[in-house]
From TrEMBL:
<comment type="similarity">
    <text>Belongs to the ABC transporter superfamily.</text>
</comment>
<keyword id="KW-0547">Nucleotide-binding</keyword>
<dbReference type="Pfam" id="PF00005">
    <property type="entry name" value="ABC_tran"/>
</dbReference>
<feature type="domain" description="ABC transporter">
    <location>
        <begin position="27"/>
        <end position="75"/>
    </location>
</feature>
<dbReference type="InterPro" id="IPR050319">
    <property type="entry name" value="ABC_transp_ATP-bind"/>
</dbReference>
<dbReference type="GO" id="GO:0005524">
    <property type="term" value="F:ATP binding"/>
</dbReference>
<protein>
    <submittedName>
        <fullName>ATP-binding cassette domain-containing protein</fullName>
    </submittedName>
</protein>
<dbReference type="InterPro" id="IPR003439">
    <property type="entry name" value="ABC_transporter-like_ATP-bd"/>
</dbReference>
<dbReference type="InterPro" id="IPR027417">
    <property type="entry name" value="P-loop_NTPase"/>
</dbReference>
<dbReference type="GO" id="GO:0016887">
    <property type="term" value="F:ATP hydrolysis activity"/>
</dbReference>
<keyword id="KW-0067">ATP-binding</keyword>
<keyword id="KW-0813">Transport</keyword>
Length: 83
């Protein structure tokens, strides 16, 4: 698994008259995890650990690239996603 510059933003609440900047939960995370490796992610409450995990599983939309066996995860579908 390889992650390149993964970023995730949550939109700020407010109407069209009140524009506010969103919350950047994850900012340009890059990592490479080799087969058989273990990765631990630690941090304070609210630091983006769960958001990062959800983005890696494609449960939340994120910027950047997630590659599995050299292929972009957003381009894999169906049986190609199975182990």
């Amino acid at each position: 698994l390889e992650v390149r510059a993964l970023s995730l933003d949550y939109p700020a609440p407010g109407g069209w008259l009140r524009r506010r900047a969103g919350l950047r939960a994850v900012h340009e995370v890059s990592l490479r995890l080799r087969r058989g490796s273990t990765l631990g992610i630690v941090g304070e409450s609210g630091s983006g650990k769960s958001s990062l995990g959800q983005a890696l599983l494609r449960l939340l939309p994120a910027e950047g690239q997630i590659l599995f066996q050299g292929e972009r995860l957003d381009r894999l579908h169906g049986k190609r996603l199975l182990p």
